């Protein structure tokens, strides 16, 4: 196997595939490696930890076809450190040679038979606009639990809702819900529970074409000429694959029945607070500075004309701030974990936030004042 | 090779001891109270002065926690079963330990240490390492700081201590031991009180010592080494490291090789806050009756909870420890979403954990420990009601010992009950604490703590060296002597 590729393209594909490679030592040494395949002028790189797999491809100048499995981190570090320009990679038997300008490295490779054989994922059956998916992931993934003792809550629920797809995540203290428009044939009958970790990786892909970065290498033709990049979704029995440009992210699905979240959402709220997103966010971040543990709440005293934020942090000090706001309802003081509240407010799109409350112990909702596709349900902290 | 002086491994004695000392010599003190518990008892009851006094559990299962040098003349030492001590020294006065008094005196001791250096690492209630490297300019050299500490301890507590001064923890600890009084058949011989191991003369001090003095040399290793003709640390140092490793294993071998060169790079780490509090009791004879055991459990929980509240904290994790008559032991623990501190809420979890253990054998020891501290009551992050156990924080250490079906479910329900009790008992618990603060520990307690002799409320440290009371049944006692 031999090919030549621009350093920057190579770093990009290696880093992307490398994200799925576990840093832990696993049963199979080859899992610490990425599988590199050169076929014609196409270069394909795969990294996997068996739960999460990332396939990425790019254009290269193919000199001879072949496959090798190379230690992921080492190779990425080496290629990243090279001078800009063309990098030549040549694999022979149990060695791979990396050369660029006047640098030359020769690395031991893993036997390519030791690398798990991964089936080629099926073609996407659903297309979602990449921009709304990325936004939805940003809003929802943060609410998923990272407590391995509660495996179901480490996932994000994706289910058909109306004519689109709904994403839901909760760690039992807060719940984030987001609807996106899109064709949902694949999810018509099914709902899937996707590990939040895989979605967090998906979110980071530059191949999604958001953040003003166009996919590198040869873009797929799935765009069909439209300007907005799309993400393809294909659902298998035990896994799901997201296809974005030249990258495919596959993950095992979580198995189990997700809690019935619908019954948690209060039908109506007596108290409504309309407040500027940025002013509330800035004030919350300021008062949070005196919080030194995860038990100290921020108190919100809501009244006509404004909301007072107070943090009393034992052994540290206290902080308070008043933010102008419109309030309808009965005056109320309610306390929240400041980080959870900031997560919710920050996730809102638009300039104005609506905070809906019932009383100091019932779930509150944070959402954008002018939109209903995102909702963030948050349980208060009970204070005496 | 050649005739140059060697710093090699082969001949430890020939090396210049100063060659491996770090650029700045540390000055480490090890302060150890002399017969601490026993001395406090003598202090409080002067009629005991000059007599063999043994502190510990006097019952058949008790052990010696401490003894005066007069008792040591007869061969009594700490950790010895009380029954053996009684045989060696029948005239000894047995005193049941009063932990709260030792804690009081220990606090005075630490207050003195704190004036010398902030780098105080308490090893136990009556001994500590002090790194006084930074205090030398201000307070004088190591030996004079040591002398000052001894004088102040004598004045403030009326007790004596021994101090070792050296450049690391290992040598300081060995030095304080050498400073102690010695008791043998001929009588009690006062020790020097302070022993200083001077820099560059460490090996002179270390090498004549018996190998048992080194940390990590237990009876087994000692026997093995004696078999090689190694009796002193000096003998050990002259052994090639490969020989050591062959006989003791690689890790242990190189560890010892370092020690016998007097090397110990460990820092004095200032005391950290305790990570758990708890209470445990060894019973005079094995317990079989469930009602009786539950009663004991309630009392132990009460003691642990009371201690916990003393530190103004709540605990999230509750661990129950059970030692059976055959010395096998199981622990069960459960963590909750919110910290609790009231005896009823801790009790319901402890009881559920206890119920999960198969009790085919009698119970010798029962203990409860509380960890995962956090502020209680005032702030509680509420949860969404997700239904089923998925919504609960559920974690149990499962070690495969008689875990019954439905454990998770039961713990989940117990957790909910505990949270409810924590809410409803908050005020009552505060009232109990203030009554106890005013009228003493045994003034108020739950009905399950009532015994024939009134309320039996446990104090911290009580029974930790074994029970005081003799079992009524002599045959029972005899059986218990066989361990």
Helix and strand arrangement:
The complex is a heterodimer of chains A (384) and B (483).
Chain A: E1 2-6, H1 7-18, E2 33-39, E3 42-48, E4 52-59, E5 61-64, E6 66-71, H2 72-81, E7 86-92, E8 95-100, E9 103-108, E10 126-129, H3 130-140, E11 155-161, E12 164-170, E13 174-181, E14 191-195, H4 196-204, E15 230-235, E16 239-244, E17 247-252, E18 271-276, H5 277-288, E19 298-303, E20 306-313, E21 317-328, E22 332-336, H6 338-347, E23 352-357, E24 364-368, E25 374-378, E26 381-382
Antiparallel strand pairs in A: 1-5, 1-7, 2-3, 2-6, 3-4, 4-17, 7-8, 8-9, 10-15, 11-12, 11-14, 12-13, 13-25, 15-16, 16-17, 18-21, 18-23, 19-20, 19-22, 20-21, 23-24, 24-25
Chain B: E1 28-33, H1 36-44, E2 53-56, E3 64-67, H2 69-72, H3 82-88, E4 93-95, H4 99-116, E5 120-124, E6 127-131, H5 136-139, H6 142-157, E7 161-166, H7 169-178, E8 182-184, E9 187-189, E10 194-196, H8 202-206, H9 219-227, H10 233-237, H11 241-248, H12 250-259, E11 276-287, H13 290-310, E12 314-324, E13 329-340, H14 343-355, E14 363-374, E15 380-381, H15 407-439, E16 450-451, E17 454-455, H16 474-481
Parallel strand pairs in B: 2-4, 7-10
Antiparallel strand pairs in B: 1-6, 1-7, 2-3, 5-6, 8-9, 11-14, 12-13, 12-14, 16-17
């Amino acid at each position: 196997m031999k090919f030549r590729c621009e350093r920057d393209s190579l770093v990009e594909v290696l880093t992307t595939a490398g994200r799925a490679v576990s840093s832990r030592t696993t049963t199979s040494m080859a899992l610490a490696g990425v599988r590199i395949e050169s076929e014609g002028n196409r270069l394909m790189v795969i990294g996997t930890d068996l739960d999460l797999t990332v396939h990425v491809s790019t254009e290269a100048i193919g000199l001879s076809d072949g496959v090798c499995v190379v230690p992921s981190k080492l190779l990425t570090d080496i290629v990243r450190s090279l001078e800009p320009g063309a990098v030549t990679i040549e694999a022979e038997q149990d060695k791979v040679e990396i050369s660029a300008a006047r640098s030359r490295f020769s690395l031991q490779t893993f036997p390519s038979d030791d690398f798990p054989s991964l089936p080629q994922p099926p073609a996407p059956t659903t297309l979602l606009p990449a921009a709304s998916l990325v936004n939805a992931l940003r809003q929802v993934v943060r609410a998923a639990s990272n407590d391995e003792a509660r495996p179901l809550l480490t996932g994000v629920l994706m289910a058909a809702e109306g004519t689109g797809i709904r994403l839901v995540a909760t760690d039992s203290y807060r719940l984030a819900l987001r609807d996106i428009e899109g064709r949902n044939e694949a999810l018509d009958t099914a709902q899937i529970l996707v590990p939040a970790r895989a979605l967090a990786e998906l979110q980071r892909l530059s191949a999604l074409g958001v953040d003003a970065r166009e996919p590198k290498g040869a873009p797929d033709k799935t765009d069909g000429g439209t300007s907005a990049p799309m993400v393809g979704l294909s659902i298998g029995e035990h896994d799901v694959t997201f296809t974005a440009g030249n990258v495919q992210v596959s993950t095992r699905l979580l198995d189990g029945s997700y809690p019935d979240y619908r019954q948690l959402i209060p039908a109506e709220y007596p108290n409504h607070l309309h407040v500027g997103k940025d002013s509330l966010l800035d004030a919350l971040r300021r008062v949070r500075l005196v919080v030194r543990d995860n038990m100290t709440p921020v108190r919100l005293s809501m009244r006509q004309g404004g909301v007072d934020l107070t943090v009393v942090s034992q052994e540290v000090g206290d902080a308070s701030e008043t933010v102008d706001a419109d309030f309808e309802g009965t005056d109320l003081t309610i306390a929240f974990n400041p980080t959870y509240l900031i997560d919710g407010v920050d996730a809102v799109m638009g300039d104005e936030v609506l905070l809906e409350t019932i009383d100091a112990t019932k779930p509150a909702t944070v959402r954008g004042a002018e939109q209903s596709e995102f909702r963030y349900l948050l349980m208060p902290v009970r204070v005496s | 090779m050649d005739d140059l002086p060697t710093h090699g491994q082969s001949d430890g004695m020939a090396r210049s001891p100063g060659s491996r000392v770090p650029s700045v010599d540390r000055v480490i003190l090890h302060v150890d109270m002399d017969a601490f518990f026993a001395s406090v008892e003598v202090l409080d009851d002067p009629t005991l002065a000059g007599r063999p006094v043994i502190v510990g559990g006097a019952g058949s299962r008790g052990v010696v926690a401490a003894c005066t040098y007069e008792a040591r003349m007869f061969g009594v030492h700490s950790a010895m079963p009380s029954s053996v001590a009684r045989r060696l020294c029948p005239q000894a006065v047995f005193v049941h330990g009063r932990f709260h008094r030792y804690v009081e005196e220990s606090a005075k001791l630490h207050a003195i240490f704190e004036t010398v250096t902030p780098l105080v690492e308490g090893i136990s209630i009556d001994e500590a390492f002090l790194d006084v490297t930074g205090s030398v300019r201000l307070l004088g050299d190591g030996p004079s700081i040591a002398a000052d500490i001894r004088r102040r301890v004598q004045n403030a507590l009326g007790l004596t201590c021994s101090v070792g001064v050296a450049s690391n923890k290992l040598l300081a600890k060995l030095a304080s031991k050498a400073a102690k009084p010695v008791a043998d058949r001929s009588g009690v011989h006062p020790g020097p009180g302070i022993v200083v191991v001077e820099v560059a003369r460490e090996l002179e001090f270390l090498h004549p010592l018996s190998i048992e003095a080194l940390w990590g040399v237990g009876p087994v290793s000692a026997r093995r080494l004696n078999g090689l003709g190694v009796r002193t640390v000096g003998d050990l140092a002259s052994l090639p490291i490969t020989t050591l490793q062959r006989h003791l294993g690689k890790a242990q071998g190189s560890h010892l090789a370092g020690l016998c060169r007097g090397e110990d790079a460990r820092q004095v780490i200032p005391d950290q806050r305790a990570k758990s509090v708890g209470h445990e009791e060894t019973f005079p004879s094995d317990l079989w009756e469930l009602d009786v055991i539950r009663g004991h459990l309630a009392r132990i929980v009460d003691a642990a909870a009371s201690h916990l509240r003393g530190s103004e904290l709540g605990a999230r994790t509750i661990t129950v420890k059970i030692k059976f008559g055959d010395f096998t032991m199981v622990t069960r623990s459960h963590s909750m979403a919110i910290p609790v501190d009231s005896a009823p809420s801790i009790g319901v979890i402890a009881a559920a954990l206890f119920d999960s253990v198969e009790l085919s054998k009698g119970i010798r020891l029962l203990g409860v420990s509380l960890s995962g501290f956090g502020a209680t009551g005032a702030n509680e992050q509420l949860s969404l009601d997700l239904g089923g156990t998925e919504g609960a924080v559920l974690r149990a250490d499962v070690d495969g010992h008689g875990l019954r079906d439905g454990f998770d479910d039961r713990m989940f329900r117990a957790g909910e009950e505990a949270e409810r009790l924590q809410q409803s008992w908050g005020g009552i618990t505060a009232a109990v604490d203030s009554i106890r603060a005013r009228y003493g520990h045994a003034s108020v307690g739950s009905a399950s703590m009532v015994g024939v002799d009134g309320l039996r409320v446990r104090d911290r440290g009580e029974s930790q060296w074994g029970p005081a009371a003799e079992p009524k049944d002599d045959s029972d006692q005899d059986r218990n002597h066989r361990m």
